[in-house]
UniProtKB/TrEMBL annotation, chain A:
This is ABC transporter ATP-binding protein. The keyword S-adenosyl-L-methionine does not apply. GO terms for molecular function: ATP binding; ATP hydrolysis activity; transmembrane transporter activity. The lineage of its organism: Bacteria, Pseudomonadati, Thermodesulfobacteriota, Desulfuromonadia, Geobacterales. Residues 6-224 form the ABC transporter domain. It comes from Geomonas limicola.
UniProtKB/TrEMBL annotation, chain B:
It comes from Geomonas limicola. Residues 333-424 form the Membrane iron-sulfur containing protein FtrD-like domain. This is Membrane iron-sulfur containing protein FtrD-like domain-containing protein. Pfam families: FtrD-like. The chain crosses the membrane at residues 6-23, 30-48, 60-84, 130-149, 161-179, 230-252, 282-301. Keywords: Membrane, Transmembrane, Transmembrane helix.
Amino acid sequence: MAVATIETSGLTRSYGEICALKPIDLSVPEGEWLSVMGHSGSGKSTLMNLVGGLDRPTAGALVVGGQDLSTLTEDGLARFRREYVGIIFQQHHLVPYLSALENVMLSQYFHSVPDEAEARHALERVGLGHRLKNRPGELSGGEQQRVCIARAIINSPKLLLGDEPTGNLDHKSTLMVMELLKELRAEERFTVVMVTHNEEVAAWGDRTIYLTDGVLVREERTRS
Amino acid sequence: MIALKLVPHLVAFFGMATVALRGATRRGMLAGTALAGFLVGTGFAVVSTGSVSGQFSFSLVRALLALSFLLFCAVSFTALYQSLGGSLPVGWLERLSSRPVSRSCALFLASAAAGAVAGCRLGPAVPSWVWGALAAAAAVLVLAAVLLESRLPAGLSTSRAGYLALTVAFLLFSASWSTRLDLFAPLTMKVMKFTHDFVHQFFESMLIPDHLFIHSYLWGYIGLLFGKEVGFWGGLIIWFTPVVMVFLAIGLERLPSVAHLRQGAQRRRVLAEAIRTRRMRLVLPGLALVLLASAVYRSLYPSVEYWDPKPVPVTANAGGEIFLPRKGEIDLMDGKLHKYVFERGGKTARFFVLLTPSGKLTVDLDACAICKPDGYGQAEGTVLCYYCKTLIPLETVGKPGGCNPVPVPFTEQDDGIHLSGVTLINTWSGTVQSTTRTTEKGK
Ligand SMILES: Nc1ncnc2c1ncn2[C@@H]1O[C@H](COP(=O)(O)OP(=O)(O)OP(=O)(O)O)[C@@H](O)[C@H]1O
Ligand SMILES: [Mg+2]
């Protein structure tokens, strides 16, 4: 029985009147790849932000990696994000005037100290060893997303969150990114939680949960 | 007034005590040691300035300060040398100095020096309750130091050389508030004199045998070496070199080896933490730098209060004798400089009467044998020659030579002081004529 990486009970997040996340009980064992599906506005991003320490719950318990996020201070939460979580968004959020290499090194800098050799190695692992000096604007969408993956894993997170990382990619690029994530997970053994609208993408995971209007309505095990 | 005078010294002692407790194990004992040292130091200052000789205690304290500075130089040099990878056979010394008892001894000495500085600043003519208050203040400050130290962040530590830097800086800072204990001014004088002698020895013997090409303009550069600037800048370099060496030694400290850590992120985290710690270790030496800089400032712009009395006209009686009552309108015994002006046959002479710390009255011209007769003012245990700004300790006033005021023969009786007007005028004329001549010749 693996240790739970994410453990929520009665987790709730409401914006004033709107209740984006109704009380949710969720348990994600260490090393699992969980896909999150649901229609637009169902609260998928809200859940991700809570689990990643980007947002605070209005009610309920939220324990990630053994830490009770609702009791952490702002500083503690920042450290949690820095050292425990790697995040990939649909919009890549790369710094446009820095090269791919510098974007990865920036993440190292916020974590601890930059190490160029290590950053270069990370980009080589995602197949961008030849595009180190290019800026995000000079890279294709798939390449940009691979820079984001390099950036997300550079600090060896225990938990990798993806909020529709393949949302903007064509079929071929999507496959490439998913293949890469699978490889990396085999090496680094992090837990993955990935939001997607794409059944095919969701099938890469071990388990898929479905949200509707902030309620966990269904979950199913995928076998691969 | 007195209390205000003591503030910088008490602050310095407080800082020193706080620093001494950093990273120590038996804080209570150390705090007690600091207090005891301070009290012994003050006690020493009281007894020696009062009974032996003020001059002696000032010299002793200054020597102690100079020694601590030299020790600091040696330690900082060693520290830098070692962090550059050099090895020195000082292992036994390090073991010795890391023993708690050595730490206590060092703290005792440093506190004693701090106490003696405060004591010297007050001087002997101070009521005993002031000493009591000083002791009480020191006790309170030691307690406050214990409290403050326990609240400082744990990361605020530094190397052993760094702690020494801060301790010595506090001492020198404290001393800089007394013109007679200030170490920077004598240092610049020493540098100036050394350069002067060196240039003489070196260039005169080596180069004077005429060299066609260098000769003329080389002298232009050599001239620079004789200026006052050389002493100041040279002194400044010596003053700050050890603390800069401590900075470098810490900055060059090896980061821990991370080769055994497999994961890049963890390696970087360990490195980042080590770098942060190393940076924190520079904070206390940085404070030492600030203290040393402020000591230089104090030395350049001392805030001493000058006693600058107006000369009181006096006349001679029928027998040509000037009489100054011991306790008339003016109290000759109050330890202050009392200036008079005497006129006879179209010539005037200025002189002053002063009670020296040894308890004897002295009568001197308001002029010395070497400077223009601009006269003297009184400042904190010294008289000051307005022309050349030399400080003359009160103890040596009444003795001839150098820039000391020229003594005038007089007789002291129960009622007061008697001196001959003619002798006074003649002494004045002799002195002033000769100084005017020398000054002109010098130009
Ligand atoms: N900051 C906010 N303030 C107010 N309401 C918000 C805020 N963020 C999200 N919501 C609301 O919460 C609900 C859930 O939003 P969420 O972003 O989690 O949806 P989602 O499942 O990620 O949708 P999509 O698939 O379109 O990204 C929505 O109704 C949204 O309008
Ligand atoms: Mg969303």
